[in-house]
Amino acid sequence: QVQLVESGGGLVQSGGSLRLSCTASGFSLRNFAVGWFRQAPGKEREGVSCISSADDNTYYIDSVKDRFTISRDTAKNTVYLQMNSLKPEDTAVYYCAALQFGTRFSVLFDHTYRGQGIQVTVSS
């Protein structure tokens, strides 16, 4: 079965850390750009961070720069989002999406596969 599954979400206090995992099954992430997105209640979806398929170039929105790090573990077929210094405004449902042969920017607008999402809640 081809799918992307997110894990690692939960409840954390402000200033804390979480590491989200996006694990693929049924296909290899090797040639896929992967993006992390989030959507908070009443707000539009935003692309948080992306990693390209060809050379692992990365992208971050300004609000998470220097706090979040995206990385890829090819052996585990997983892309991670390490989130440090979390703030209440980071609270949202986070999901990952993958685009075959995508760039770090193209995956912001298109995807081949998408996960179901996982809740991240940061308490103040």
What features would you highlight for this structure?
7-stranded mixed sheet; globular
Question: Can you walk through the features of this model?
Answer:
- By secondary structure, the chain is mostly beta strands.
- Helices cover 0% and strands 51% of the residues.
- It has strands spanning 3-7, 10-13, 18-25, 32-39, 46-51, 58-60, 68-73, 78-83, 92-100, 113-114, 118-123.
- Strand 5 (46-51) and strand 6 (58-60) form a beta hairpin.
DSSP, total strands? 11
Q: Topology as H/E string?
A: EEEEEEEEEEE
**Helix residue percentage:** under 10%
Unreliable segments (pLDDT under 50, ≥5 consecutive)?
Answer: none
User: What structural class should be given to the helix and strand makeup?
Assistant: mainly beta
Distance between the termini: 39 Å
Q: Indicate the mean pLDDT.
A: 96
Q: What is the radius of gyration computed over CA atoms, rounded to a whole number of angstroms?
A: 13 Å
Total helical segments: 0
Chain oligomer state: single chain
Sum up the overall morphology in one term. globular
Largest sheet: 7 strands, mixed
**Beta-strand content:** over 45%
